[in-house]
């Protein structure tokens, strides 16, 4: 099952040489803020354009969502997003954190937690960014993208909130996640058990390093980052987060620009191809790319600059800054 593949594959993503707070890429800073949707202090990385401090210009914003067992630091510090953001120049890039939540509002939370992770991104992160930075805070100036779990999250959030984003991109997206969960619920199968750092000594060692980099009280280790509760209780709840179903509930005029890509050696490429077929059959504009590569950081370092430029161009055209 692809769901299990994602959980296993993404345990290998964290290099011990991850960038520390002392040597952040140019233009990158970390913001800590309180998120009511999840009732905890959270963080996001943000990259501001060159000349931001010396101007009064407002900028479009691209939100980058991390994958399963990743965190808010992966895009800007390990995958090159900070570099490309500065190269593009007229763009703010925000990299939020959502733990291992799949970017959904949980049907049920336990242990006193509050797990409205969709609301965390759509309301709390976006509102905090718009309140504290010079953004173009409207649909035409906002895009969202993600990798693996984040690719699913980006596509789902963009379709569930069509007034928020003019462009959405998925790289190596686990786009059939909700469909798989719906099928499991219908078959009476128990919910999946989150991958724990207790599974191996290697994962425990990585967790010790990564938790110091994340440095969010009560939300730094993988066990803490697994929401306590249940994502979906019914088939209908899962289907409400299924991009293959949501897209048919929207008018074409409401849809964002779509970008999809994946590696030829990645089992999740079939998800992108299937969604591309939906777009083709319904005459919906999109861009698609497939290239040599696996479900790993080597592939994402090659894809990030491409889709960031595509999404920036879409926003600039929507804003009337391009012919």
Rough outline:
globular
Q: Tell me the count of domains.
A: 1
Structural class: alpha/beta
State Rg: 18 Å
For the terminal residues, how far apart are their CA atoms?
45 Å
Low-confidence segments, ≥5 residues, pLDDT <50? Answer: 1-21
Task: Say what the CATH topology is.
Answer: Rossmann fold
For the biggest β-sheet, the strand order reads 1-2-4-3-6-7-9-10
Order of helices and strands: HEEEHHEEHEHEHHHEHHEHEH
Helix content: 25-40%
CATH class: Alpha Beta
User: What's the β-strand tally?
Assistant: 10
Report the sheet with the most strands, covering strand number, pairing sense and barrel closure. 8 strands, mixed
* Helical segment count: 12
Annotated CATH architecture: 3-Layer(aba) Sandwich
Q: Mean pLDDT across all residues, rounded?
A: 91
Task: Estimate what percentage of residues fall within beta strands.
Answer: 15-25%
> Any idea what the CATH superfamily is called?
Alpha/Beta hydrolase fold, catalytic domain
Keywords: Signal
InterPro entries: AB_hydrolase_fold, Esterase-like, Mycobacterial_A85_antigen
GO molecular function: acyltransferase activity, transferring groups other than amino-acyl groups
Signal peptide: 1-21
């Amino acid at each position: 099952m692809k769901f299990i593949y994602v959980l296993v594959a993404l345990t290998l993503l964290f290099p011990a040489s991850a960038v520390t707070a002392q040597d952040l890429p140019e233009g990158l800073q970390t913001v800590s803020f309180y998120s009511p949707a999840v009732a905890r202090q959270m963080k996001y990385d943000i990259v501001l354009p060159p000349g931001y401090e010396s101007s009064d210009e407002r900028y479009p914003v691209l939100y980058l969502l991390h994958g399963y067992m990743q965190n808010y630091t992966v895009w800007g510090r390990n995958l090159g997003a900070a570099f490309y953001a500065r190269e593009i120049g007229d763009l703010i890039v925000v990299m939020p954190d959502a733990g291992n939540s799949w970017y959904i509002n949980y049907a049920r939370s336990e242990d006193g937690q509050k797990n409205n992770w969709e609301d965390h991104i759509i309301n709390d992160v976006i509102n905090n960014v718009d309140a504290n930075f010079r953004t173009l805070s409207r649909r035409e100036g906002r895009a969202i993208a993600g990798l693996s779990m984040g690719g699913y999250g980006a596509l789902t959030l963009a379709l569930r909130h069509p007034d928020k984003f003019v462009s959405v991109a998925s790289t190596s997206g686990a786009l059939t996640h909700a469909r798989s969960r719906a099928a499991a619920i219908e078959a009476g199968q128990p919910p999946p058990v989150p991958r724990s750092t207790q599974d191996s000594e290697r994962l425990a060692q990585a967790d010790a390093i990564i938790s110091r980099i994340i440095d969010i009280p009560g939300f730094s280790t993988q066990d803490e980052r697994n929401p306590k509760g249940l994502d979906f209780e019914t088939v209908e709840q899962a289907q409400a987060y299924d991009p293959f179903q949501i897209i048919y509930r929207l008018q074409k005029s409401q849809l964002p620009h779509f970008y999809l890509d994946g590696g030829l050696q990645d089992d999740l490429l079939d998800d992108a191809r299937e969604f591309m077929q939906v777009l083709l059959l319904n005459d919906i504009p999109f861009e698609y790319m497939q290239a040599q590569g696996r479900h790993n950081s080597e592939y994402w370092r090659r894809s990030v600059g491409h889709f960031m430029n595509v999404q920036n161009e879409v926003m600039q055209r929507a804003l009337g800054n391009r012919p």
